[in-house]
Design brief:
This protein is mostly beta strands and about 140 residues long. It contains one helix and ten strands; from the N terminus they run βββαβββββββ. A hairpin with a 6-residue loop joins strand 1 and strand 2.
């Protein structure tokens, strides 16, 4: 496993994955769907190239929920924890930051959909903020 700069997985351990090369910065989405699926004020993910990601075990344990509009949430079918999501183009993977083992030193890239964030949430860092998708 030394080829990985980070590994992670779900709460029950059924799903495990590794990330090669350097870790991408964390992006936070504050839209209502990401708030609902994370149960918090935002959804924190690393957006990496697919060739830097590898399933180590449990890919068959990944369950998908999709809205009629196509928005998706992926999670472990045993424990319900969010798991990596290979985007529809097959080129990028969204990795839940909280699914990484330990406490990696991650930079913050910014915040999207701040225009619809919950009133009770406070963004306390100085990272870029965008009301919707950045241009």
């Amino acid at each position: 496993m030394s080829e990985f700069v980070a590994v992670g997985g779900c709460l029950c351990g059924a799903v495990r994955f590794g990330v090669k090369e350097k870790l991408a910065p964390v992006g936070f989405c504050h839209c209502s769907r990401c708030r609902r699926v994370s149960g918090t004020g935002s959804n924190a993910v690393l957006n990496i190239r697919r060739d830097r990601f590898e399933w180590l075990s449990g890919e068959d344990q990944v369950q998908v929920y999709a809205t009629p509009a196509g928005w998706k949430s992926l999670f472990c079918r045993t424990c319900g924890c969010p798991v990596p999501h290979i985007l529809s183009d097959g080129q990028r993977v969204l990795i839940p930051a909280g699914a990484l083992d330990g406490d990696p030193d991650l930079a913050i890239s910014g915040h999207i959909f701040v225009g619809s964030k919950a009133r009770w949430e406070v963004i306390a860092d100085g990272s870029p903020q965008f009301d919707a998708w950045p241009s």
